[in-house]
Amino acid sequence: MPDVRRTPVFDRRFAHHLWQLIRIYWGSADARWGYFLLALAVVLEIGTVAGSLLVADAERRILDGLEQRDTAAFAGAVGVFFMATLGFVFASAYRIYTRQAVEIRWRRSVTARYVERWISAKCWLMEELRGSEVDNPQQRIQEDIREFVSSALGLSLSLLAAVATLVSFGGLLYNLSASWPLPIGGSTVIIPGLMLWVALGYAFVSMWITHRVGRRLVPINYDRLRLEADFRYGLVHFRENAATVVLSRGEGMEQREALTRFRHVIANWWHLVRAQLNLSLLTGGIGQANALVPVLIAAPAYFAQLLTLGSIVQVRIAYGQISSALTWFVFAYPEIARWRANVERLSTFAESLDATERRLEAAGIRVVPAAARLLRLDGLQIAEPNGRVLLDGASATVAAGDRVAIMGPSGTGKTLLIRAIAGIWPFGAGRIETPRDAAMLFVPQWPYIPIGTLRAAISYPDPEETFSDDQILEILRLVGLDHLETRLSDTEAWEQLLSPHQQQQLSIVRVLLQKPDWIFLDKATSALDEATERDTYALLNAKLPGATIVTIAHRASIAEYHTRHWTLTPAGGRVELVAA
Q: In what side-by-side order are the strands of the sheet with 374-383?
């Protein structure tokens, strides 16, 4: 199993990360509503504390009325009790509602920020640049943000309630135990506010012990989130490639890999279970022992007839409230540990996005829109992210209306050249000029097909209502996909239902519907037989006679459908581009 991470629980780095996450929403335009709702939640949180104080006093009056057999005092106390309880229930219910309203707004803002940064032209290379530094970005965006926001609000408001409880019940507890006799060694000592000091001492000792025992939960929770996500991703990845795995007879390997990842989950789970067992034993013992402390200490004053039974109950309630407030840290520690792991995962994700953006901005290929109706490569050098140069010193032009086939052995950088022209491969040097006002469409070997209706899959990346059904049906018939005519409104995982050659035909349907000025085909007909491929290029020429077509040739016959050729030739450890 991977080593458990060892990081400080709270340090300057954590404070910086926390501030970066907090200001995403609380520095936004919507934050004014957030501040209003948060202020309301604070008022309601304090209202629940005030309600608890009134309920405790009413319970004392009820018991005193019973002890003194005073019917009027008893009835009045019962009335106060019900009114205080009603107010407490109202404030308690609406504080949860208000907190959840803040949570929705906060999560919406943070999720939108991370989605915009992750699903972007700049950061698609993060996986290649950062390697395994950032695992499961989808889980960090979906689960970690939700838990971060929920815990941040829950912990902060519960801490506020604990402080308010400490202030309100602290004064009450001090006054109630202001003159209690404490028998010590045959003599009696009076310590003003005795119960308050007992509660403070008990709580601080409990917090110190809890922190020492529970701090291991932070790194264990960090690894739990990562390992669970790795296991889930492996299962999803198999589902998406099940046919290929089965054809390759790879079921046994996939099972072993899945079970290996699951063993890591189980091993981490045992670490977590043991750590939580130790913490539960500690917090359970602290809680049970603490329940008896106020009765034991108040007993001498009660036996000395300095306290009524109602006062004993009130002291016990007040001590319980104070103790609960002071031991907030003890019982919140598991959630703090999970929250700390959420902050760490979101922050390292953001740091990797930042590092990726800086790396891309520092890269050397410049793509410049120009007024001329041509594509120009000027001293272009294409390299891998590690700096190894592939294509070197390429200079060539493509005029509007040209048909250019890019040829060369595998590994010479043909696909990277297309990506550099698209502006998404910045590694290298040189300049690429592209026509400023031309519509350019880049068609990869395997198209992205979203889950949804077939109409939406065909219209992608435009909205599905962009093209009429008549337009779509006409093109489907032209490319040989007429058997799909009746399924435009069907919602399916089309990437799994369509064969490889049907997926590439769907790409051609998109091209013919969108009618771009410039078309870049990256082995986009590699799954078609030669006759269908020939018909496809004939269709492109007939329907888009004025379009410029640049194609990466996957077989020699592609060249005959083009009027110009770029050949990438290895020479002396580098690749040269020869234009003809």
A: 366-370, 428-435, 374-383, 389-399, 574-579, 564-571, 403-407, 548-552, 518-522, 440-443
Provide the 3-class DSSP secondary structure of residue 84: helix
* CATH number (domain holding residue 47): 1.20.1560.10
pLDDT digits (tens, 9 = 90+) for 507-559: 999 999 999 999 999 999 999 999 999 999 999 999 999 999 999 988 888 88
Q: For 382-400, how does the pLDDT look when each residue is reduced to its tens digit (9 = 90+)?
A: 988 878 888 888 899 999 9
- The verdict on 352 and 371 lying in the same domain is no
pLDDT per residue as tens digits for the range 38-96:
999 889 888 887 877 787 777 777 877 777 777 888 888 788 888 888 888 888 888 88
564 Rama class: left (phi>0) / alpha (psi -120 to 50) / beta: beta
Domain of residue 190, residue span: 12-361
- How far is Cα 516 from Cα 504, in angstroms, rounded to an integer? 17
Q: 375 near 435, Cβ under 8 Å? A: yes
Pair 328, 437 in one domain: no
CB atoms within 10 A of CB 439: 12
Query: What residues contact residue 239 under an 8 Å CB cut-off, 6+ apart?
Result: none
DSSP readout, 14-64? HHHHHHHHHHHHHTSTTHHHHHHHHHHHHHHHHHHHHHHHHHHHHHHHHHH
What's the DSSP call for residue 571? E
DSSP secondary structure, 375-424, as one string: EEEEEEEEE-TTS-EEEEEEEEEEETT-EEEEE--TTSSHHHHHHHHHT-
To which residue do tokens 């399916």 refer? 492
Cα–Cα–Cα angle for 318, 324, 330, nearest 5°? Answer: 160
pLDDT of 290 over the 90 cut: no
Question: Is 419 inside any structural domain?
Answer: yes
Angle between the N-to-C axes of helices 500-514 and 469-479, in degrees from 0 to 180, rounded to the nearest 10: 130
Beta strand extents in 487-572 (DSSP E only): 491-492, 518-522, 548-552, 564-571
pLDDT, tens only, 160-215: 888 887 777 777 777 766 666 666 656 666 777 677 777 777 777 777 777 677 66
Quote the distance between the C-alpha of residue 368 and its chain's center. Answer: 34
DSSP assigned state of 367: E
| Residue 174 near residue 196, CB atoms below 8 Å | yes
> What pTM does this model have?
0.68
Provide the angle, in degrees to the nearest 10, between the axes of the packed helices 251-303 and 309-326: 140
- Tokens standing for residue 161: 């309630």
Residues 457 and 548 in one domain: yes
